[in-house]
Amino acid sequence: MTVTSVSPDRDRTAAPDPSSGAYPSVELSIWPASARPAAEGDVTVADVSLTEAADRFGTPLYVLDEGEVRDRCRAYRTAFPDADVVYAAKAFLCRAMARWVENEGLGLDVCSAGELGLAMTAGFPAERIVLHGNAKSPEDLSAAVRLGVGRIVLDSTSEIARLAEIVPEGDRRQVMIRVVPGIAAGGHAKIRTGTEDQKFGLSITDGSAQHAIARILAQPRLELVGLHCHIGSQISSVKPYVAAMRRMIGLMTQVRDHHGLELPQLNIGGGHGIAYRPGEDRLDIDMLARRIHAELKDGCAHAKLPVPRLTIEPGRALVGPAGVAVYRVLTVKETSGRTFVAVDGGMSDNPRPALYGVRYAPRLIGRRSTAAPSLVTVVGRHCEAGDVLADEVLLPGDVRPGDLLAVPAAGAYHLSMASGYNLIGRPPVIAVRDGSARMLVRRESLDDMSRRDIGL
User: Fold this and answer.
1) Pick the catalytic residue: 111, 229, 300, 383?
2) Where are the alpha helices (DSSP H) in 322-365?
């Protein structure tokens, strides 16, 4: 596979399969750029057969295209050459992912001592790590101080005193304050984090942010270096970011006027949307970069502020389109006029449809079907009626037990949100590149789960 620089926002089409005539190009438009139709209905990613990968590693299985991840990192660095691009590890983190991100010159955003510790075991430079979260434990803060993370984003006034207490005397730690700009954006109510009525950040409107800033400035062991906001996730429009930027510049102006401090940094978070099904909107990263840079430059010039160093935090947009989930069909059942196709995974390895109503576009792989498409609901094997992976999607009418289904855009918030429900065990993750596959995260075994149960 030849790795080329790609924009994370571009539409992609697949090469035709010469054995069967051209596939409709839209079928692979949301897959990794390296995805190609292959013989007998198979699909390859980075020249690795998904069918062969399923046979070798078992199912359910996550396949992650390393080249796609790296290309997306480079595309962000190109779009934001003068900014700090920081990968939001909550989307998906393993040691290899941390290493790829580091290699491509990005920082890392972590939300817990666990994520921080894993990154450190991969050799990630602590000074390029940002820690934030709405309720950091004493262990989280202690680990951040001990390991020397570059910046800590404070989310509440209680964290200010707690952090100042554990910073060694004579030392200062760089902090930012997470601000609620009062902007509603995001693909679902549960992932809109820029409004006044949710748990994250401190409000500009009611003065909480301004009060917290004053408290930080009174702490000699804390150095306030900037403001942070994150307005939501799965955002496909540039406009909310522009609106948030204006309010953040307004607050930076207040800090200058009231405290005589010109803040050198501004973090506008991430939440950049991707397409989960053909034809869905995604955020245009190049357009975002142009509009944000223009707004930042013009707004600071109007306020007579120096332009701060910008930080952005993409997560899903870097890893989501690089991943494919592969399942094996266990049963096909027709009841009350509906057809349910049950696979060997489900909400324990992808809770997002149950949480947010996310819709996916599964594809039959591993055999060629000439059957007319039929409307089916792909469900998991768990004891919940809400265990639905793809509601009312078109699959060949002859889909049957033993078939393989591949689900694209599965790289983000799948394994990182996976659970131990029904003790099924979390799937493995393999990386594919240049025709080879290697294990990154092994399958969780019954022995893994049993070792935690020590109550007999």
Assistant:
1) 383
2) 352-356
Which residues, including other chains, have CB under 8 Å from residue 38's CB and lie 6 or more apart?
17, 44, 49
383 is catalytic: yes
Alpha-carbon torsion (371, 372, 374, 378), positive or negative: positive
Question: With 0-12 CB in 10 A as exposed, 13-18 as middle and 19+ as buried, what is 322?
Answer: buried
d(CA 115, CA 335): 44
Residue by residue, pLDDT tens for the chain (456 residues) are 333 334 454 444 443 343 343 334 347 899 999 999 999 999 999 999 999 999 999 999 999 999 999 999 999 999 999 999 999 999 999 999 999 999 999 999 999 999 999 999 999 999 999 999 888 999 999 999 999 999 999 999 899 999 999 999 999 999 999 999 877 655 444 444 444 566 678 988 889 999 999 999 999 999 999 999 988 888 999 999 999 999 999 999 999 999 999 999 999 999 999 999 999 999 999 999 999 999 999 999 999 999 999 999 999 999 999 999 999 999 999 999 999 999 999 999 999 998 888 899 999 999 999 999 999 999 999 999 889 999 999 999 999 999 999 999 999 999 999 999 999 999 999 999 999 999 999 999 999 999 999 887
Q: Nearest to residue 297, comparing CAs of 310, 311, 312?
A: 310
- pTM metric for this prediction: 0.91
Residues in the chain: 456
